[in-house]
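**Protein of interest**
===
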Amino acid sequence: MQTGQLPRTDESTAPRAGAREWVALAVLMLPVLLVSIDNTVLAFALPQIALALEPDAAQQLWLVDAYALVLAGLLVAMGSMGDRFGRRRMLLIGATGFALVSALAAFAPTAEALIAARAALGFFGAMLMPSTLSLLRSTFQHRDQRRLAIAVWATAFSVGSAIGPTVGGVLLQHFAWGSVFLMAVPVLLPLLVLAPLLVRESRDPNPGRIDLVGIALSIVALGALAAAIKHVAVDGPDLVALALVVASVVAGIAFVRRMQRSATPMLDIDLLRIPAFSGAIAINLLSVVALVGALFFLTQHLQLVEGMSTLDAALLLVPGTIAMVATGLGVVRIVRHLPARVVIAIGLSSSVAGYLLVAISGEHLTPLLVAVAYLLLGAGIGAAETLSNEIVVSTAPPAKAGAASAVSETAYELGAVLGTAVLGGIVSAVYRSTIELPEGLAAADASAARETLAGALDVADRVQGELGAAVAEAARTAFDHGALWTSLAGAALVLAAIVVALRALRRA
């Protein structure tokens, strides 16, 4: 295959899937929904967890990011293992471990224990996601059917991220915060029963030897990069961040060179030279940054600034979720008549408008404006995620579907980390630098109020009176000021995704 050229295929005449394959698709959606819900479900649970486990600002971000950091570091390795040992087998192992650890996470006694559980969930989640997408590649061989199946997959992934807060809101309205983890058990049990009956095993017929060095290099390259992003967001640039970046770059270069020398590489590096493949990966990454970053501060605005209950705030985001579903499925027909790059660019323009609406509203951001902004954002992300994932899977050779799918999933997880760490970090940084606390607060209370909005409101409740009201007002004003700058940053990132789509996807 020549660099820069898409592989020649004749998939329009391939066998068409029957009823069994479509039922199998429904089963494969269970882990997709669950893992993507797990990325954002903590957005609404964080206030309760903060009160119960009392994490500091760094631990609060780690509660969100530990899962995505481990997941991102292991995805390529687990995708390659699925190609070798069987994608269905990896799916079942991951589902079993994910269910067991979720039950333990629900009863974590400390913030440190919950962070450790989230990291373990990332380990088993890394087995789930590449397996589901690569199994679709082998299950649906006809291009039109596969495009629809991947549209359903991508929609489920985006919807899972979007309904995470909604699911969390419903559960937290009636149960303790641990319920957001316990929900994994009933979701995964049907998968463990039905997947062996409906999903055919799939693997690389010529996997070559196990490349332990390559696996280790991929883990260091991706894990160190995600950790560096996280560290800069919390502590700023320093020697630790520099060391992590250097480790990531060195390991990444070594990984690429090793794959180029290998006769049977676990990841075909030549794929990254195809503009459509690498462009689709970049669009995936930037879209997820926009979605997760928006959820991070919009959910806190609704609960902590507007004073809405978790359930009411979650329901307010439902129109955006519906828009995400509609555009994710709708582009399957539209792309038959318009180039993918044009469809993605038009869709993401809607997401830019959603971010700008938040920025323009500033301190006058109302719940109704939040709902409209999230609807615009979701509509664009749904279209972009469907088409970018379909391009990734269709470009890669079938034998390496697991590793190629893992690259797409890695972009998603790094996007989740960036969304929280960078956009969430901007909110936190502006909040801490602009909050103007009234005089008369004890030193410990002032320190807690400067850490997070939730901490400031807790101080306000304890202090009460005019002083407490002043603390709450100062904290809410500072948070919304941070949301303004974060929205501008989010809009810039989505604009970058539009440029990538128009330039890189000309042949897709």
Q: What stands out?
A: DSSP finds 19 helices and no strands in the chain.
